[in-house]
Please model this.
Amino acid sequence: SDIVAVIKLDPVLTGRIISYANSPFQAPLRPITSLENAVIRTGRHELKKIFYRTVMRDAFANVHPDTESVM
Model:
């Protein structure tokens, strides 16, 4: 699908989604290795949450050293 094609462009996001799909919270019977299966297993709501966490973490990870002391 289109969502999988866009997610594949970001290896960090891909890894986080596959990791979540294989987490004890999801409790898969077999390990999930494909992004397509991970997206189906995770669902749209959780995908959005993982996406926003990843984007926000990346946005604040590259803080300039001078501004880091202020935050």
In short: The helical segments are 2-7, 11-21, 35-42, 44-61, 65-68. The two ends are 40 Å apart (CA to CA). DSSP finds five helices and no strands in the chain. The chain has a mean pLDDT of 87.
